[in-house]
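stage 2 :: seqdesign
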């Protein structure tokens, strides 16, 4: 609202100056016409005194009209220079504001990108740990399976040992399954974050290109 009020005030002042300029020019034209009429009338009368007086009045009126016109031209030049200066100032202000907005956008995008890159790095570390756990649990499952198979071959007298090994095998399988699920979830989350990061980087690139 405050930005519109100065514009309206400046427009009102410009309109007033144009109206005043039109009035001054009309007065100058009227003076020239009047001087011409006086000279023509004096010449038509044939009186030397009237011609002399009309000539003097014509010169005075012409000088006044010239003064008014010259003053109006000077005012018009000053007003034009003032308008150009105001436009240059407005353009400079607009350029500064757009530059500040672009810098703020770039900084915000960089902050978001850095944050996502940190999250992705941590998830990659967690994914590597989970994959190592999966490999370890898989090795344990295979070892327990081999031990259970050997114990089963030794006979019934080792049934208790076989049952214990089977329970250990089941527990290892459960942990391996949980590790596999965790790896899948981390991979899915990592893919989503990488896609979001790529989208932000593309948006930042387009913003810089449009600013250029």
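stage 2 :: out
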């Amino acid at each position: 609202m405050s930005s519109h009020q100065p514009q309206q005030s400046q427009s009102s002042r410009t309109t007033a100056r144009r109206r005043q300029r039109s009035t001054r020019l009309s007065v100058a034209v009227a003076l020239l016409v009047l001087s011409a009429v006086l000279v023509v009338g004096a010449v038509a009368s044939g009186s030397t005194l009237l011609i002399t007086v009309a000539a003097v009045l014509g010169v005075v009126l012409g000088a006044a009209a010239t003064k008014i016109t010259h003053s109006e031209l000077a005012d018009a030049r000053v007003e034009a220079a003032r308008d150009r200066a105001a436009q240059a100032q407005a353009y400079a202000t607009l350029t500064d504001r757009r530059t500040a907005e672009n810098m703020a956008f770039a900084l915000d995008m960089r902050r978001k990108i850095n944050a996502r890159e940190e999250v992705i790095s941590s998830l990659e570390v967690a994914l590597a740990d989970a994959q190592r756990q999966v490999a370890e649990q898989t090795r344990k499952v295979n070892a327990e399976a081999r031990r259970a198979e050997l114990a089963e071959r030794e006979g019934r007298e080792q049934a208790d040992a076989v049952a214990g090994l089977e329970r250990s095998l089941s527990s290892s399988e459960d942990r391996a399954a949980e590790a596999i699920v965790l790896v899948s979830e981390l991979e899915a989350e990592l893919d989503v974050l990488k896609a979001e990061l790529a989208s932000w980087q593309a948006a930042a690139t387009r913003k810089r290109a449009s600013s250029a």
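stage 3 :: structure notes
- The helical segments are 4-45, 48-154, 159-211.
- The chain has two domains: 4-103, 108-211.
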